[in-house]
Design brief:
The protein is α/β, with parallel strands linked by helices. The protein has helices spanning 10-39, 48-73, 127-132; strands at 6-9, 74-77, 93-98, 104-110, 121-123, 140-145, 148-158. The chain folds into two domains: 6-77, Helix Hairpins (Orthogonal Bundle); 79-158, Transcription elongation factor, GreA/GreB, C-terminal domain (Chitinase A, domain 3, Roll), CATH 3.10.50.30.
């Protein structure tokens, strides 16, 4: 079975590495101290502080493993190092116009862990991104949404960092 690499932007990888460092150097030591402090309070069976700290420790360790696993599979794609052809690819920022309403939206196509629709970042696996990938400026694209099929025109493709 081949290991599948997960595409991620340079910024997305840096955010995961920052989170991992924070978990290992700040959160983990604080939780260990909280457990030690709670142990000093005596009977562990009825010690809510101890049980809460152990639960936090379990969550923290699980998140550390999850982030490390993601980082081991990441394939960092720096769109600024790829020639700008006007074609929509992973990492590009795309401005689209709804042909029915003339509403304009701008999205950056990013990895699953980086997606944040409120910040204009959509996952590579989202219906809009899947419809846009491989298309070029000026192309018309049909996107199937929960409300039906929507026609968009690709107004601009940018290679932003």
């Amino acid at each position: 079975m081949a290991i599948t690499k997960v595409p991620m932007t340079v910024r997305g990888e840096q955010m995961l590495r920052t989170e991992l460092a924070e978990l290992k150097t700040v959160t983990r030591p604080r939780i260990i101290q909280d457990i030690a402090t709670a142990r000093e309070h005596g009977d562990l069976k009825e010690n809510a502080e101890y049980h809460a700290a152990r639960e936090q420790q379990s969550f923290c360790e699980g998140r550390i493993q999850e982030v490390e696993a993601k980082l081991s599979l990441v394939q960092v794609i720096d769109v600024s190092q790829i020639a700008h052809t006007g074609k929509v690819i992973f990492g590009t920022t795309v401005t689209i116009i709804n042909l029915d309403t003339d509403a304009e939206k701008t999205y950056c196509i990013v990895g699953e862990d980086e997606a944040d629709i409120k910040a204009g970042k959509i996952s590579l696996g989202s219906p809009i991104a899947r419809a846009l990938i491989g298309k070029e400026e000026g192309d018309e694209v049909k996107v199937t949404t929960p409300g039906g099929v929507v026609d968009f025109e690709i107004a601009e493709v940018q290679h932003l960092v």
